[in-house]
Amino acid sequence: MPKVTYIEHNGKEHVVDATLGASVMDAAVKHNIPGIDADCGGACACATCHVYVDEAWLGQLDKAGAMEQSMLDFANEVETNSRLSCQIKLTAALDGLVVRMPASQH
Amino acid sequence: MILGAGQAGGEAAFRLRANGFSGAITLLGEEPFLPYQRPPLSKAHLLGDMAVEALFLRESSAFEAADIMVHTGARAEAIDRAAREIRLSTGERLGYDRLILAAGSSARRPGFARGELQGLHVLRSIADVARLRPEMRAGARLAVIGAGYIGLEVAAIARKLGLAVTVFEAADRPLARVAHPMTARFFRDLHETHGVRFEFSAAIAGIEGNTRVTGLRRADGSVFACDLALLGIGGIPESGLAEAAGLACDNGIVVDDSMRSTDPAIFAIGDCCRRPIPLYDRRMERLESVHNALESARIAAFVIAHEADPETPHKAPMLEAPWFWSDQYDVKLQIVGLSAGHDQIVLRGEGPCFTLFYLMSGRVLAADCINMPGDFPGARKLVQERLRVAPEILRDTSLPMKEILRLAAAPVAQSQ
Ligand SMILES: Cc1cc2nc3c(=O)[nH]c(=O)nc-3n(C[C@H](O)[C@H](O)[C@H](O)COP(=O)(O)OP(=O)(O)OC[C@H]3O[C@@H](n4cnc5c(N)ncnc54)[C@H](O)[C@@H]3O)c2cc1C
Ligand code: FES
Question: Could you tell me the domains of chain A?
């Protein structure tokens, strides 16, 4: 099971044992990690699952798709390492992934 | 005490804790499950692409960690407001200081389809899918009554699974209550291309069959033979307990901006409530959507946590324009805003990819984005901020939404 570390905006860390194939968003919500709202449940329609991917891991991820990119265009405080966590599927290669959450998802 | 362990009830419980509420929280639900998401019931889950486990919103460990007591398989039968107690079907009584009603909605059943009959289906819950899915065999003849979102989504899945599908609709087009004729036309063509048959202006008078559905009887007496039928004619609010307890109800439990009912100790959220929508002059609406469930839950949680501990500052939830989505075949429909009252329609794009804007005196009231996910976030902002945009600008597909927002961000935005 891939481990994911979620770091809240205030620095608080949460480590989750995620299910293979689940998304980074799924794993957070199922374990009630604060800082990811995921209002649309992963339909790539709300941009309330915004995270900053740790720079060391950026190379391991596929690029954001067109739909994700257009959602990100309208999210708040977008950085070059911004992603929608519902669009990142967890593979064995992502074991140890670290993501940070923005101050607010709305 | 939260009555109803669905999308809204679950959200309220966790939001109470996130707001620092330290009292006891009990979540009471009739279904034998922890809160789960319903949208996939008529989409990926019905198709067989999404397992039941993936529907659950949170792990049971998260409920334990947040100290939320969940009673599943427990049906509330009455609210005793004087004693501040809930009575369960088992006779057990549970007390409350604050009660949140989050009982959702149930499928509307016409008079002729009240009884249980094999092959007659509704689609609201995991149990409904478990009953329907095994009957969706290739070659079977499915009659869908009602061309609303759920009916059309089931029709799409049924075609994928190889059923013969006929949709009966009382109006002259699909989605008649919710979408403009242009959007309706698009969905009609889409389904017909995929082999769905429609009967519009249909009057169904009865179901044929003694133990099992064999057909639908039209008002003119003719019979349409089918193997299974799905009722998709909308939902009715689960407001019976509230009504019996004397709370004001009018197509939903009537609440104020705080989600408070006419009893100050009782709140109502999600599908079962009718609430003022600030973006539309606080018009009272009963909405059935995930957004409405989450937003109303967050408001109630904020208000209750704040009352319990007024000293601590609590962050009020952001209010957003109502929004909704639907997936049919490979088409993605995303809707933002409520279009009622529009006096102008502006079409952006063409063919299978377009956005339809609904304007009132120039203000963007709502938008339907069809295969235009790139437009959706921008459309949300236009609606949310009550912006006015000239139709020729909206229509111009060479302008990305970001640019349109920039052009729209004039002071007139403040005028309503
Ligand atoms: C098939 C389907 C597809 C949908 N698709 C979409 C979509 O694509 N997008 C979208 O935004 N919305 C969609 N919706 C709507 C959305 O799922 C609902 O608006 C949302 O679930 C409402 O949340 P709720 O908590 O108010 O009600 P629910 O989630 O229905 O939960 C209410 C719960 O209360 C329980 N309950 C009721 N009475 C009692 C009682 N007396 N005692 C104990 N428990 C009780 C019920 O058993 C139920 O579990 C869909 C709904 C359905 C059914
Ligand atoms: S959960 Fe809504 S966009 Fe990711």
Answer: 3-93 (3.10.20.30)
